[in-house]
Amino acid sequence: MTGRVSIVGLGPGNEDLVTPQVRAALATATDVVGYFPYVARVAPHDGLTMHGSDNRVEIDRSQHALQMAAQGQQVVVVSSGDPGVFAMAAAVFEALENGPADWLDIQIDVLPGITAMLAASARAGAPLGHDFCAINLSDNLKPWSIIEKRLRLAAEADFAMAFYNPRSKSRPEGFVKTLEILKDSCGDDRPVIFARNVSHADEELRIVPLSQTTPDMADMRTMVLVGSSQTRIIERPQGPIVYTPRSVLE
Amino acid sequence: MTGRVSIVGLGPGNEDLVTPQVRAALATATDVVGYFPYVARVAPHDGLTMHGSDNRVEIDRSQHALQMAAQGQQVVVVSSGDPGVFAMAAAVFEALENGPADWLDIQIDVLPGITAMLAASARAGAPLGHDFCAINLSDNLKPWSIIEKRLRLAAEADFAMAFYNPRSKSRPEGFVKTLEILKDSCGDDRPVIFARNVSHADEELRIVPLSQTTPDMADMRTMVLVGSSQTRIIERPQGPIVYTPRSVLE
After folding, report:
1. Is A236 helix (H, G, I), strand (E, B) or coil?
2. Is the pLDDT of residue A246 over 80?
3. Is A122 close to B128, i.e. CB distance below 8 A?
4. Residue A81 falls in which region: left (phi positive, over 0), alpha (psi -120 to 50) or beta
5. pLDDT category, B144, cuts 50, 70, 90?
6. Could you identify which of B46, B107, B159, B227 might form a hypothetical disulfide with B191, taking C-beta atoms 3.0 to 4.6 angstroms apart as the criterion?
7. Which of B153, B228, B235, B249 to mutate to test the interface with A (most CBs of A within 10 A)?
8. Residue A247, C-beta contacts closer than 8 angstroms, at least 6 positions apart
9. pLDDT higher than 70, residue B250
C-alpha cells in the first residue's frame, strides 16, 4: 500500500466549518498527527491511531508523519485554521526537504481550511474587504526587527492587518511594541478587532478604537485585525459592523 | 417572519470545499442572490428563488438582497471563495450604510469560505507559510498609483504576495506593470505561481521563476502567488513543492 500524508485544516473550531474534503481524509486515515488539542477534535474510528504531541515540536511531528507514510500508512497531519497559514504545512515541507531522499516519493496533499483571520473578519463584518496583510507576531522564529519593519511598511501601504499569535505568556512585550508602532503610524480612530476563540461557544468579539487599545486585550487565542484608513463602522442595535469598502477614491 | 441576509462563501469551485455551515444556510434560503455563475452552483429546492445578475452590479444586487430581507425573506448572497475577501460582504455593508435606517434592524451574517489564495497555496505547497499580503490588482475601484505603492512596499517588507483579479481583458496593462515592478524589486529566481481555475476539473498550476514570467500567463481566473525572498522549491518526481519556511534567521 502506498503511503500518503494529507496536511489538513480543521478550521477555527466550529465543526460546521470543517470542509467535506477534510472530513473524507480523516475518515480514511490510519494515523492522525498534531498538537494535542487539535488531535482531540478528530472522531475516532477503527484502525485509527491518534498521535498527539505538544506544541513547539513541529519538526519532530512532521518527521514522524513522513516516516509513517514511507511505511505505507495513510497519515493526516492536523492544524487548526488553514494548514498553510502559520501552521503545519511549512513544517512538513521543511522536514521533507531535510529528510532522506526516498521521502520525495511520498504523496503529499494540503487540504485548505478556514483560517482564523477569515472567521474573525466574518464575525466583525468585512474588515479585510480590501487589500490586507497577515503577520505572525511571534518572534520565536524570526527577529523582532523584521516584525517591526513589516508593521511600519504595512501601515505605510495602508493595508488592513491580521495578526496571528499576538501575545504569548512568555514574551508579552512584542504586542506592547506592536500597539506603540500602530499608534505612531495610524490614526487614533483606526478600528481594532480583538476576536478570541472565534467560532467556539465562548467566542468574544471586541471592537476598540486604536487609541483605547491595551496589550492585555489579546492573548494567544486572540486574532487581532486592524482596519486600514478607509475602514468604517456601522452602528446598529445588534452591535457594530466593521467593513473596509471596495473602493479607494483618488 | 424576520428576514435575514447571509453572505456566504462557496469556496473556489470544488463542492467538497463548501462548509456545512454554508450548505445549511442555502438549505433554508428563500432567495439566492449573486453573480450568475455562482448562483448556478446552488442546488434548487422548493420555495427557493434564484436571482442571478451580471458582474459590476454589486451594489444593486446588495440593495435587492436587503430589500427582500426587510420584507421577511431568508436571503443568501453568494460569492465564490470567501465573501469577505474582494467579494460581496463589503458591497452589502456599503449598501446597508447608504440605505434606509430600517435596514439596520436586518439580521446579517457573514459565513466564511475557502478563499482562492488558500486553495492555490495548498495546491502549490505552502508559499503563504510565513507573513504575506493580498492585493486586488484590478484598478476599477482604486487608482493604479495605490496598487503600485503597495507592490513596492510589499516587496520591501518581503511579504509573500497573493494577487486577485490580476488581468482583465479590458485593462491588461496593469499586470504588465505589476511584473515590471516585481522584476525591479525582487530577485530573478523568486518563485511565481499561476493557479488557474483552482479546485475545478480543468485546474492548471504553473510555477515559474520571476525572470521568466510573462503577462499572458494570467487572466481573471488565475490566482497569482509570489514568494518572499525565503521561499523555497523542492523538486520531486510528482512535481515541485513551493513553500515559505516558518523561520527567518537573523
Report:
1. coil
2. yes
3. no
4. left
5. very high
6. B227
7. B153
8. B141, B142
9. no
* Digit-coded pLDDT (tens) for A36-83: 999 999 999 999 999 999 988 999 999 999 999 999 999 999 999 999
Q: For residue A86, give the chain B residue with the closest CA.
A: B129
Residue A162 has pLDDT above 70, yes or no: yes
pLDDT digits (tens, 9 = 90+) for B150-208: 999 999 999 999 999 998 888 889 999 999 999 999 989 999 999 999 999 999 999 99
Task: Answer yes or no: do A134 and B133 touch at CB < 8 A.
Answer: yes
What's chain B's length in residues? 250
Contacts made by residues B101-105, CB under 8 angstroms, sequence distance 24+: B102/B70, B103/B66, B103/B70, B104/A234, B104/A236, B104/A237, B105/A236, B105/A237, B105/A238
Per-residue model confidence (pLDDT) at position A68: 98
Residues of B in contact with A159 (CB under 8 A): 133, 150
Which residues lie across from A243 on neighbouring strands? A126, A232
Which of B28, B58, B93, B97 to mutate to test binding with chain A, by most A CBs within 10 Å of its CB? Answer: B93
Contact check, Cβ <8 Å, A108/B241? yes
Distance from CA of B133 to the nearest CA of A (A): 4
Sorted by sequence, the CB contacts under 8 Å of residue A87 that are 6+ apart come out as A9, A79, A80, A81, B129
- Closest-CA distance, B162 to chain A, in angstroms, reads 10
Please say whether the structural domain B4-114 has been given the CATH code 3.40.1010.10.
yes
* Whether B119 and A112 lie within 8 Å, measured CB to CB: yes
Q: Which of B128, B183, B208, B126 is nearest to B161 (CA)?
A: B128
Q: Which CATH superfamily is domain A117-243 in?
A: Tetrapyrrole methylase, C-terminal domain (3.30.950.10)
Cβ–Cβ gap A159/B133 under 8 Å? yes
What is the Cα gyration radius of chain A?
Answer: 20
Q: pLDDT tens for residues B45-61?
A: 999 999 999 988 999 99
Nearest CA in chain B to A121: B84
Q: What is the ipTM of this complex?
A: 0.97
Residue B244 is placed in which grid cell? 515559505
Place B139 in a pLDDT band, splitting at 50, 70 and 90.
confident
Query: What is the distance in angstroms between the Cα of A241 and the nearest Cα belonging to chain B?
Result: 8
Cβ A97–B234 below 8 Å, yes or no?
A: yes
- Tell me the one-letter amino acid at A62: S
| pLDDT band with cut points at 50, 70 and 90 for residue B1 | low
So where are chain B's domains?
4-114, 117-243
Would you call A10 helix, strand, or coil by DSSP?
coil
Q: Are B141 and A248 in contact (CB < 8 Å)?
A: yes
Count the neighbouring beta carbons within 10 Å of the beta carbon of residue B76. 27
**Pairing label, strands A132-136, B132-136:** antiparallel
CB atoms within 10 A of CB B109: 14
